[in-house]
């Protein structure tokens, strides 16, 4: 079970590590996407805005030209029968006429263009502010996602380390159990030899009789108790490692 758990967690950790290779690039990728979208949107919006403003400019220019022609036409219609004056005061009156008619229109057009410039700049600033806010939000979401991925990766690393330790402890438990089995088998052979009043030949090849047999039996009991104590300690370590 330890090997299976370790292998499964290792695969998960490797997958997380593979995905984690993009952690350092995630923020730049998000910012690059945001910037690309921003400039693409700006380019389309600027073209549309330019077309709209050029259309309005053509209309205002046409209206201004028509108005000038109207003023000139009205003047010619009323005074075409008069000869061209050589008096400077008449030409001054003509200038006053055109100035009085055109100055308000020019002032109004100037005010309109100033207002349009202000509105355009304000709209552009709002758009830039909105784009910056969206970029910050996406960057924050990317940072949060990267943090979660990093935490997940660290958790997987801890799980791999924990399973490796459990596997090592399990191997030690199995080894101790094998020793206990060997010592118990030796103990059984010793008891049978003692009951049959025979010389006991231990697993180390030495013969034992009488008091020496009892001492060897006591040593076997001590070895079994020591290994069982080790097993209990190993089990406690595994319990500590498997607590979440």
- Pairing-aware structural class of the strands and helices? mainly alpha
Separation, N- and C-terminal Cα atoms: 18 Å
- Give the fraction of residues assigned to helices: over 70%
Provide mean pLDDT, rounded.
79
Please summarize the sheet with the most strands: 2 strands, antiparallel
Gyration radius, in Å: 49 Å
Share of residues in strands: under 5%
Low-confidence spans: pLDDT under 50, at least 5 residues?
Answer: 1-28
Structural shape: rod-shaped
Q: How many DSSP helices?
A: 4
H/E element sequence: HHHEEH
Q: Describe the strand arrangement of the main beta sheet, using strand numbers.
A: 1-2
Please report the total strand number as a whole number: 2
What does this structure look like?
- The longest helix has 108 residues, at 88-195.
- α1 packs antiparallel against α3 (88-195).
- This protein is 88% helix and 2% strand.
- Strands 1-2 form a two-stranded antiparallel sheet.
- By secondary structure, the chain is mostly helical.
- The model is unreliable at 1-28 (pLDDT under 50).
- The chain has helices at residues 2-20, 23-79, 88-195, 211-241, and strands spanning 200-201, 207-208.
Tag the structure with descriptive keywords.
244 residues; mainly alpha; two-stranded antiparallel sheet; 4 helices; 2 strands; rod-shaped; disordered N terminus
